[in-house]
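Study this chain:
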Amino acid sequence: MSPRRVMIVDDEKGIREALKQVLEYEEIEVQVCASGHEATRVYPDFKPHLVFLDVKMEGMDGLETLKRLRQLDAQAQVVMISGHGTIQTAVEATQLGAYDFLEKPLDTDRILLTLRNALQHVVLVNENVRLRQEVRAQYEIVGSSKAIRQVIGLLEKVAPTPARVLITGDNGTGKELVARAIHALSPRASGPFVEVNCAAIPSELIESELFGHMKGSFTGAFADRAGKFELADGGTLFLDEIGDMSQSAQAKVLRALQEGVISRVGSGKTLPVDVRVIAATNKNLGHEIELGRFREDLLYRLNVVPLHVPSLRDRRSDIPQLVAYFTAELTHVGLPAKEFETAAVERLTAHDWPGNIRELKNAVERLLILAAGPTVTPSDVEKLVGRGEAGTGKGMGGGSGGGSLDGDATWLRAATFEEFKQAAERAFLLRKLQEHDWNVSETARTLQMPRSNLYKKIERYGLARREGGG
């Protein structure tokens, strides 16, 4: 641990020496300065944890010095000392950011108590700064394109408010990351962030998941259970894939948003909840309303501030930054450290990325693991990811692997209509599986197909992950 550093600024040599002796006895590294000008010159290099600063000095007085030190370092911790202090001086020093105010003659016990308290305060301030940096890093939205800068700008405006946000965008664009960033930058950051994937929960269980249930309210309800709304009280509830929520659950969510109360399944009592709701979807909710699958009044409640997360194809200039970011992140957790050749990054930038950020991260991880040499080359990208030139669709549906939507177009050479249908279905399913990184459950849900049926078709058509490098 680095030694604690304290700066003493006083134009009286006797005060400087006496205070220095007390502090060095406490194993403090001390720097003495005879003037405010000297202190402002020395401060940046010495970087003290605490400054003892005299108020009345010739030339630049203590209050002016305090102001200059706070300009150099907004976190500077300064204790003012004075032989003829007044309440007005103490108030002014506090307004300028002084931590404390001591009167001469200085009492050793008071100095040491102030020293301990001030250094503990420094530790807390530094820890707070560190935690904020960690939060920002954890939910960092990488990119400098106009499209992503617009997202960040809107995010920073809406986060401090209580407004509900509806996040839209394709699969894999980072909607959850945006939701977590809004929470982290909001006044509710110290409260819970509770996520519900509405698409992953069966319709018959979604109400219990959201609102909780009472013992015996349905088969399998063996005990009282709090729902996600209760668990998110005082924080943020993130309703992901809101477009897949059942009609009955939509009605209850609408009531919770309108009245700020919920009822557990099987209970007639209402419970007040203080929750900020952020919702996300990859569906066109306007179209879902036309089809009678989504409530228009619920959309109005959720869509106070709409925030669209662009697809990766709409922010290609961010891909080099994302590749560098994912490389650093993945090597930090133990993957081999490899450099990406410029041409390899260009090849990745040209890719279509239907799976967006999620697919790109998976590709970077695959390249770090499987690329043979110390660097990732364009041939590695072509072999392990695919060609994927923008706008051509090549490499995204399997290339020459027999499942490309462009590729060899096997269905166009089919002898019968049945052969055509089978070849087209094979290519379609292969592409959808690759879009979802071969997550069969997610692919089946998107296709509105029973998972067992999709497994049968994968087996029937001999689909394999190696096709197209996906």
About this structure: DSSP finds 19 helices and 14 strands in the chain.
